[in-house]
Design goal:
- With 418 residues, the chain is mostly helical.
- It has two domains: 300 residues, HUPs (Rossmann fold, 3-Layer(aba) Sandwich), CATH 3.40.50; 110 residues, no CATH class.
- α12 runs antiparallel to α13.
- 44% of the residues are buried.
- About 1% of the residues have low confidence.
Length: 418
């Protein structure tokens, strides 16, 4: 198996990755642009884009910002509203796997920034029906979350005639260098289907076998191209216009606005995905079963590229987290109404045979389990200089009346409203 000589990605990354003659992956090569780009010029370009979309009459919002109770939501809203002076409408898809930390973060975000917010909560029965289908078809418990998060902002843009949507980082750009920062790639339906949604549009889920009807998938359907063109909807990514550093951005938001962090089951990053019981837990465990790697590889690779980890330290972190069992599996099984045996049977159908094999006792084993395989003959020559520290803050836990250790469909968020 081929591994990058700088980071910890291998040739089987699901977003696709290529290697040059020095064994450096496309993601690392595109990351090099962050140290070469004139970001002041990029900021001017972003200013020009925002100026073009400001609603001079004041009778509508300037743009839409998709948010959640985690990831880079605070930083994006802070940048759009407080740095560039835009008037955003916040939109959020309720993933229904919500933690109390995530509910508090979202409540705090909408009050700290004094923004209007629209929330889509799909019927829990419908979400469960879709989740059973996507588990069977593509081995995913998270398809409905990604589908909702990526289509609800577009639906609202069309409905309210707000043409500009502002996203954070483009995953294909940030992880595998699918595009250059100079391309300034924007949101597309094609990328969403092929990569975010694993090749399935909402319409593809309609099935008598799964009991899914056209009515069930309405909230996940992408608007018609004619509607999008009539409004002129476009979605830009901020990481094309600023040096994107998720760790430093989160720490700024902790200091400015009291963003809450939390320990995660299968990664050392305490900043991202704290709003969800499953993302860095059951969902990530499934990712490991399917692709042989997990979120800890994404996070260690990111920190290596940003010069806060050495490659060897990244390997140590992977060894510490990659085999951890999910803590919240029973919660998910109870919510969906299936047994653990059923769960294992379904997910095992989606293992990559290039990565997994059964041993003599019919137990699944990684074909390349030894992470010393990450050591590349060119690593000492090519590794970027180690220049920083990698501690992630763990904040105090806020108070609220919302229950803990249980999915929160609708939560108050805080018992101390401003």
């Amino acid at each position: 198996m081929i591994y990058c000589s700088r980071c910890l990605y291998n040739e089987h990354h699901p977003l696709n990755i290529v290697f040059d003659e020095e064994g450096v992956c496309s993601g690392c090569r595109v990351h090099e642009e962050k140290y070469e780009i004139d970001w002041a010029e990029k900021a001017k370009k972003l200013t020009s884009i925002f100026n073009d979309y400001k609603n001079i009459s004041g009778n509508n919002y300037d743009c839409i910002v998709p948010v959640s109770g985690a990831k880079d939501s605070y930083f994006i809203v802070h940048t759009v509203k407080n740095v560039y002076g835009m008037n955003p409408l916040l939109v959020t898809y309720n993933k229904q796997y919500n933690t109390d930390v995530g509910v508090r973060n979202l409540a705090n975000l909408r009050t700290q920034f004094n923004c209007d917010i629209l929330t889509l909560t799909v019927s829990p029965d419908t979400v469960k029906k879709i989740t059973r289908a996507t588990m069977r078809r593509m081995g995913s418990i998270y398809w409905h979350c990604i589908a909702g998060q990526t289509v609800f902002p577009v639906q609202i843009a069309v409905k309210f005639k707000i043409p500009l949507i502002v996203w954070g980082a483009h995953q294909g750009n940030d992880q595998v260098g699918m595009f250059s920062h100079h391309d300034e790639v924007e949101m597309t339906r094609k990328y969403r289907k092929e990569h975010d949604l694993m090749g399935y549009e909402a319409e593809d889920l309609v099935s008598d076998f799964d009991g899914i009807t056209e009515k069930d998938i309405v909230q996940f359907k992408y608007p018609d191209n004619i509607e999008i063109e009539r409004v002129g909807v476009r979605g830009i990514y901020l990481n094309n216009y600023m040096h994107w550093d998720s760790k430093l951005q989160h720490e700024q938001m902790i200091n400015l606005y009291g963003y809450e962090t939390a320990l995660q089951t299968r990664t050392f990053d305490t900043y991202n995905d704290v709003d969800c019981y499953n993302y860095s837990d059951v969902h990530d465990y499934i990712k490991f079963i399917k692709h042989g790697y997990g979120k800890v590889v994404d996070h260690a690779t990111r920190e290596i590229r940003l010069k806060r980890l050495t490659r060897e330290q990244g390997i140590q972190l992977i060894n510490a987290y990659i085999n951890k069992e999910p803590k919240n599996l029973e919660m998910f099984l109870e919510w969906l109404g299936i047994t653990k045996n059923s769960f294992n049977y379904i997910i095992n159908q989606h293992r990559n045979p290039k990565i997994w094999k059964k041993d003599a006792d019919f137990q699944w084993q990684l074909i390349h389990p030894n992470h010393s395989l990450f050591i590349h003959p060119n690593v000492n020559r090519l590794e970027m200089d180690y220049a920083g520290e990698n501690d992630f803050e763990l904040t105090a836990v806020g108070k609220s009346t919302d229950r803990k250790n249980k999915y929160i469909i609708i939560g108050k968020g805080t018992d101390n409203w401003a």
